[in-house]
Write a structure and sequence with these properties.
about 350 residues; ABC transporter involved in vitamin B12 uptake, BtuC; 2 domains; 2 strands; transmembrane helix; membrane; cell membrane; LivM-like; transmembrane
Length: about 350
Amino acid sequence: MIKALTKRNIIIACILLTIIFPLLSDNNYLIHIMTTSFIWMIGVYGLNLLAGYTGYLSLAHAGFFAIGAYSLGILTVKAGMNFWLAFLISLLITSLIGLFVGLIALRTKEHFFAIYTLCLGYIIYLVIDKWESLTEGVRGLIGIPAPAGIGPITFETEVSYYYLVLFFLLLVVLIMYRIIHSLSGRTYIAIRNSEELAQTIGISTMKNKLTVFVLSTLFAGLSGALYASFVRFIGPDIGSISITFDLLTYLLVGGIGTLSGPIVGTLIIVWLSQYLQDFQENRMLIFGPVLTLLIIFYPRGLVGAVSTWNTNRKAKKERVRGKSYLQTELLPEKQVKEG
């Protein structure tokens, strides 16, 4: 009970800290970086749901991120649509494309799935780059509006947008928590561990994989739409494979297949990148070896390493407690026999 309360208190403390963060700092640049981190976290959660809990690594995640961003940008800038209506439609477009792609992509497995999605991501990038009449090509979309106000609440300032993105992040974390701790979550883990075994016990693997894939693309589209309305300008580069690898790096550092891994990994890498801005062109020379060592020694990332250490510590305590219990139970009997 005490441990559960402690864990709950830590979560509450983290949420409160994020809520009061803008009040602790009047530096808009720091708030900007935190808002950007929250947006990336939403996308990483989508990748984590698919790769971490179902075992299918999608390398087209940046493509769906770009679809969400460009859908919102085109609907608001070119079609002149209301922001929130365009926002919902952009999520619907991303999910429908994800459904269509998933029906084909999920017929492949393991590295074939990764290669297929890698090619798909590059095709999405080329479509955005070359379809100039729709996407403006390399010029990009300029003048994407900020979210329309809701009653007296407006989202024109850095702080107000910070809280808007924080709301969506907390909503995504809550959805992830409910999924992971549900029967569906255990089903996804069963597919990850052994898809053939899952089929033999009656699990519809294709249906469950497709559901996860669509949810993953929905989170990516949500992240992209929030990003587009935050920076107000988007170009084809947001759909490049480098963005996918950035998201994957955040996930691997934090902990693939863990609930808090996307938060930890994204915060560490984003803030570390800010301190290493002078080495941006050569950042992979720094992150590459570190990431390689992390995967070798801690394949479940930092959160997974802490979880494993905590589990081993508890197991060691249980063994010591069991040994001492046996000694106290057997010692009197031994003394009686000797007497």
